[in-house]
Amino acid sequence: MTDREDPAELRPLLFSIAYRMLGSVTDAEDTVQAAYLRYFDYLDRGSEAESPRSLLTTITTRLAIDHLRSARVQRETYIGPWLPEPLLTSADPDVAELAATSDSLSMAFLVLLETLSPVERAVFLLREVFAYDYDDIAGIVGKEPANCRQLLNRARRHIEAGRHRFDVDAAHRTELADRFFRAAEDGDLENLVQLLAADVAFYGNGGGQGRGLPRPVFGCDRVQRVLAGIVRAYRGVGARLQRSLVNGQPGLLAFDPDGALINVLTVDVEGDSICTVRSVINPDKLDHLGFPLSPLARRATR
Question: Residue ranges of the RNA polymerase sigma factor 70 region 4 type domain (predicted)?
């Protein structure tokens, strides 16, 4: 750290922290903007910041913690499965370069973070992803270093309990995901189904706005029917499917014939099978991607 850092150059780092904390591109951008406003207000009052990085990280993290606390009720009443807003890392190299690993951006990882309290999440991310030392973390979250170690150990247990099944070689994961997406593009349901694990899960995030599912679907037979319906719908409207890196992992974007975005698909791999399929079709979670949004994605209303 240096006291000569240009505060404006810290924006990618602050966004990386805020996005992992909140799982929302829109909320992360708002949080970073609010952090800068507070930072410059602090300077305008005649105070000095020994380290812009330290102060801005502290403000951003505390704002994210406050946001998570206030959003808890909203998350609990969310219609259907909650998924993070997808981030197209291939289109945002600054964020991708700041990621300690692509796994720390993955949908699977961000969903696991939902099992942690806001402060546990901050401590875990600052230590495990951004490599802050315990004294710095303690100052950021307002705890003693010993307490931060305890919070980290607790968070690690929660994360590792769900993370081990996704510990797959990146090249193998990409190859299997490519086979899955190729089968979807070709409408090859037979090969699509052969790639599914017996206990595969499907999460369709509509949030009451898009054509999602009210609850997750589990098991190869039931997920097969869901995927068959999606593939038939794609082919029926003449959808164009585009490969993209989504949250640092192989993903698929579906566009209608007018070039408007329908939904974003990602998969998790375990062994030689697809163990999780996630579809974000809630227009509110896709608007930040900058594409026009397809009316085909919207839930039918009377």
Answer: 107-159
| 264/142 Cα distance (integer angstroms) | 38
How confident is the model over 73-107, as pLDDT tens digits? 666 667 788 899 999 986 444 544 544 456 788 99
Tens-digit pLDDT profile for residues 269-299:
988 899 999 999 999 999 999 999 999 888 6
Q: In what order do the strands lie in the sheet with 196-205?
A: 217-218, 196-205, 273-280, 261-270, 249-255, 240-246
Give 101-104 contacts, CB < 8 A, sequence gap 24+. Answer: 101/129, 101/248, 102/170, 102/247, 102/248, 102/249, 103/166, 103/248, 104/20, 104/128, 104/129, 104/248
* CA pair distance 210, 208, nearest whole angstrom: 6
The pTM (predicted TM-score) of the whole model is: 0.89
Query: b or e along 187-218 (b: 16 or more beta carbons within 10 Å of the residue's beta carbon)?
Result: eeeeebbebbbeebbbbbbbbebbbbbeeebe
Is residue 293 a contact partner of residue 277, using CB atoms and an 8 Å limit? no
Residue position matching structure tokens 């402060």: 119
